[in-house]
Amino acid sequence: MSNDIPPSDQKYFKIRVNTILPSRATTFDLFVMINGRFIHYLRPGESIKAEKMASLERADVFFVHEDQRPKYKQYVFERMNEDDITTPMKAQILRESSLTLAEEIFEQPDVETALHDSKEIVTNFIDFMETHPEGMASLISLSSHDFYTYNHSLDVGIYSLGLGHVIGYDKNDLLELGRGALFHDIGKRNVAVDIITKSGALTDAEWAQMQKHPQYGLKILAEYECSEAMRACCFEHHESFLGNGYPQQLTGPEIHPMARIIAITDTFDALTTKRSYNSPMGPQAALEFMSSKLAGKYDPSLLKAMNSVLFRMKKVS
Ligand SMILES: [Fe+2]
Ligand SMILES: [Fe+2]
């Protein structure tokens, strides 16, 4: 029997270890993968000791059987509503439990399921922002500084919800914006992996490939039911306020307002994230750089609002 797990095998799904609280009984089975096999790790009703938990890496994962997905979701939901868990801890559980779904957006062949699941993820974030007004700052300060497309998409989603919230978006608009942000780079699925993961500067030909991701994304989304706003987030997030962006060279007012938000949060996340070829900027330095060197690219009023988002973040860190 082969030890390789085919990527289409959906029987188990990944969860981040730090969505499980130490010394707290789970209601589902946990598995680990060793040499390509799922090994039973923990039974329902058992818990992981704090010392064991401390020895695990942040990016480590457990697996849960697909049949028990509702139980895992319920477990996360209950932690969100538990009084003796601090808001920063809740923010961490929420973010980490959503990361694996953000990863699925890029890895699973089934875009329809990802589109469907994204409603729940973004709604959870919006509800959390509403019930824990101070929680947004914790979420933002948790943003990962290691680059993976799915981390990036989730963080752009979180920053965008922060920015949308600051400018007074209602719940429906926040939902569209958050989902648009989660899917903004979905077109990168069609760009060669070695270009996406290349650690040095791209050649002209590679860059031309990379710049096609908004078109690829639009083409992917066109096959599914989704809003105009979500399509615009995907197709217009590399447009520039002064008209020298891509692919359509739209100017300020022609660019969908949500795509203008994502243009800002996308660059902000890229600048503050560690890449192998450059070190990350601090949040304030990134925003100053965007307001000076890159000023013509962004909607000035939104860039100003991004300052308020940062201000909230500073209060936490
Ligand atoms: Fe992009
Ligand atoms: Fe992006």
Give a nutshell description of this structure.
By secondary structure, the protein is mainly α.
Topology at a glance:
Layout: E1 12-16, E2 30-34, E3 37-42, H1 50-54, E4 61-65, H2 69-80, H3 87-107, H4 111-131, H5 135-141, H6 149-166, H7 171-182, H8 193-196, H9 204-210, H10 213-222, H11 228-236, H12 257-271, H13 283-292, H14 300-316
Antiparallel strand pairs: 1-4, 2-3
The structure holds fe (ii) ion (2 copies).
Residues 184-185, 213, 237-238 line the site of one fe (ii) ion (FE2).
Overall tally of structural domains = 2
Number of strands: 4
* Order of the strands making up the biggest sheet: 1-4
Termini separation (Å)? 50 Å
Bound molecules: fe (ii) ion
Roughly what is the average pLDDT, rounded to an integer? 87
How big a fraction of the residues is strand?
5-15%
Q: For the report, how would you describe the main beta sheet?
A: 2 strands, antiparallel
Task: Please count the helical segments.
Answer: 14
What is the multimeric organization of the chains shown?
single chain
**CATH topology title of the largest domain:** Hypothetical protein af1432
Assign the CATH class of the largest domain.
Mainly Alpha
Low-confidence stretches: 1-8
Elements, N to C (H/E): EEEHEHHHHHHHHHHHHH
Radius of gyration over alpha carbons?
Answer: 20 Å
Overall spatial form:
globular
> What helical percentage do the residues reach?
40-55%
CATH superfamily of the largest domain: Hypothetical protein af1432
Give the structural class: mainly alpha
Query: In the CATH classification, which architecture of the largest domain applies?
Result: Orthogonal Bundle
